[in-house]
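Quick start: read one record
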Amino acid sequence: MILPITAYGMPVLRRVADPIEPGHEGLEALIANMWETMYNAHGVGLAAPQIGQSIRLFLVDSLQLQDDEEDDEEAEEADAQDDLSEQEGIKKAFLNAQILERDGEPWAYEEGCLSIPDVRADVNRPDRIVIRYQDEQFNDHTETFDGLNARIIQHEYDHIEGKLFTDYVGPLKLRMLKKKLDNIRRGRIDVRYKMKFPQR
């Protein structure tokens, strides 16, 4: 089932999400619905707060970027920074994630967000992370990711920490985006997927 994506300005996007306990009701269906929602919106990541649930859950599928790499100008830009062609893509659900380390040379990449449609900005993020998380069966994992995989994970991890990519944008760029952000908050935007906007 395709779920509406919560828009910029919704309070749930600014909350630190709660841990998920084993036996969480409807978790399997929720994850399936989130995958469907993400693909319908042509995203490569989606966090539970983006569908209105303040729980520590997010999905990442960077395999799609490898499939589109030759035709995707953004992927080519990232390739100049980090050899994406030699990276393996990932498709994972991350539950109760905690980033343990961030290191490596920070690099800029133009990011967007399904909750903030038609807004993009360069964001500097460290190249490498170590993250501890649980899979859908609540098995524990600690893994290292780098390059674009690390960037997507950090973007989605921010969502469960109540942060948005616009928080990393400088004041001048943020002023330039203010009208677009206000229009999203007010629901004055045409978007190709279902969204839920703040009450006016």
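Helices lie at 27-40, 63-67, 73-81, 147-160, 171-185.
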